[in-house]
Amino acid sequence: MDKRVRTRFAPSPTGRMHVGNLRTALYAFLIAKHEGGDFLLRIEDTDQERYVEGALDIIYRTLDKAGLIHDEGPDKDGGVGPYVQSERQTMGLYLRYAKQLVAKGEAYYCFCDKERLDSLKQEVAGKEIIIYDKHCLHLPPEEVKKKLSENIPYVIRQNNPISGTITFHDVIYGDITVDNSELDDMILIKSDGYPTYNFANVVDDHLMKITHIVRGNEYLSSAPKYNRLYEAFGWEVPIYVHCPLITNEEHKKLSKRSGHASYEDLLEQGFLSEAIVNFVALLGWSPEDNREIFSLDELRQVFDYHHIGKTPSVFDMVKLKWMNGEYIKAMDFDAFYKVAAPYITAVITKDMDLRKIADMVKTRIEVFPDIKEHIDFLEKLPDYDTAMYTHKKMKTNETSSLEVLEEVLPLLEAQEDYSNDALYTLLVDFAKERGYKNGYVLWPIRTAVSGKQMTPGGASELMELLGKEESIGRIRRGIEKLT
Predict the structure, then answer these.
(1) For 295-342, what is each residue's pLDDT tens digit?
(2) CB–CB of 307/287 below 8 Å?
(3) Residue 432 and residue 438: Cα distance in Å, rounded?
(4) Could you tell me the pTM of the whole model?
């Protein structure tokens, strides 16, 4: 019987969650949940210099809002904790495992100082790097013992072979073979006693029984080093899923400076969490039927990590806006109104039916900040060009529009009922009586009361919102402009 699938999301608390990290979390969640397995949250905070105050709250909040509920984590012990690396470090966990490798000859103490390490610097592909020469591997055991007893600072290095090859398998990229001479004897425990990211990762993943590891393909080059560690310990290697790069529309790596690289940036720009999660799922993965709109539950049912591609995924803002618009259209009205109300009241200070305004814009916007440009004319009539009264399809021009407005004004002044239905009936009856097409009458009125080419509602709907006094005032203004 196959063993239980266990995946993990292991972020560092360094600020807002980048879209790439959200995708890693999402894919790890979907792989586990598709198989009825466990999704773990582990906090990798051993790099104290990069720690950002409040970042832990951001991680919890983001996962919660995105619906990626973890089964085990710092707040839910599943028996393999602690789930915070600094707490595991305090227990001396990593040093204990590093010493196991030293005992097996798979690692060794290195006492080289900065001066000696600087002398080993080489330039490779335009970069200055240190390629360690295994100097301390050959120290006699008595000398190692003496240096340790004298508390001389040390690191623990992995003892990698210098000949032969190592082959690493990834689900997406297949077999990747690397010469052992390229591996270098990487540091496992730093001089401050903290583990390196790579070493802590391997130890934690093994102890937490992780079966599938999801991460970005920028880690592909490190993968053979991970395999060497698994082999050195005699542990089973997990299944690796390296995801393609996410780029911006210019095919450059999506950076934090782009303004939409993090989940919270996108929420602030008026995107819905469900739409963001749906969009991020498709950054690298595609379902068999090319369908595009999925709830998280539907993703869980159909997600197959074997369908993740190799080519970089473009973060297409136009597509995300379209998708968000589809989610807004499908929203329950009360839920929509709750989100839309602050955007409406930021524009409308007059006494108007805000729910009616929300209903008018619901199918017309892609993101919530779009609301402003759709309704700002209700608060104040913009200055507009009378050329807008000319409309080929409606067969109107400035002269005919002036005639219509002058003819209809007395009827509107005499009208008491300013509901949409009553006004529409009045205007359609007027058009019929004069032998005009509806648009011939409605276009000039809509232009006069809105001063805009595009509006979320027709002439009678807008007049209902504006009320009698404001509507008549705007029509008079239109007559003045056309005169």
Answers:
(1) 999 999 999 999 999 999 999 999 999 999 999 999 999 999 999 999
(2) yes
(3) 8
(4) 0.91
